[in-house]
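STRUCTURE:
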C-alpha cells in the first residue's frame, strides 16, 4: 500500500499546538495521555523495567517539543517513543520517553535517524528532571 504522507506546514503545526494547548487547559489532554501512559507503564512493569513516568512529566515533555515529534519537529506527535527501547532495558521514565511520529519511530528502529536529531533528543533527556 502506498499511502501519501501528510506534509505539515509550519502554520498547521502551530495551529495544532494551539488546539493541544486548549485541550490541556480544559483537562482533556491529561485524560487522553493518562490512558496512554498507563498502558506504557503496564508494559514496562511486565518486562521488569523502570516505570515511573507521570502524566505531568509526560505533558511537560510534550509541551517542550511543542506537541511535535521530538526527532523531526515536522509532524505532530503520535506516539510515546522510548529512547532506549524496553527490549534494550530502557524504562517508561521521564528521562527515556519523548513524543514521536510513526515514521521517525520506524527510522529509529532502522538506525536511519540523523545523528543531529538523536543528539538533540538525548541532550533533552539528560536534562530531564526525574522525580
Ligand atoms: Zn518525526
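SEQUENCE:
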Amino acid at each position: 500500500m502506498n499511502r501519501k504522507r501528510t506534509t505539515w506546514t509550519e502554520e498547521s503545526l502551530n495551529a495544532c499546538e494551539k488546539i493541544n494547548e486548549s485541550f490541556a487547559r480544559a483537562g482533556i489532554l491529561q485524560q487522553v495521555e493518562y490512558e496512554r501512559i498507563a498502558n506504557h507503564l503496564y508494559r514496562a512493569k511486565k518486562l521488569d523495567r523502570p516505570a515511573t513516568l507521570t502524566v505531568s512529566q509526560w505533558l511537560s515533555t510534550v509541551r517542550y517539543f511543542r506537541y511535535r515529534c521530538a526527532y523531526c519537529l515536522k509532524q505532530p506527535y503520535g506516539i510515546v517513543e522510548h529512547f532506549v527501547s524496553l527490549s534494550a532495558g530502557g524504562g517508561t521514565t521521564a528521562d527515556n520517553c519523548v513524543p514521536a511520529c510513526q515514521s521517525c519511530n520506524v527510522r529509529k528502529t532502522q538506525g536511519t535517524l540523523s545523528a543531529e536529531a538523536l543528539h538533540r533528543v538525548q541532550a533533552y533527556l539528560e536534562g530531564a528532571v526525574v522525580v
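REMARK: Residues 10-125 form one domain.
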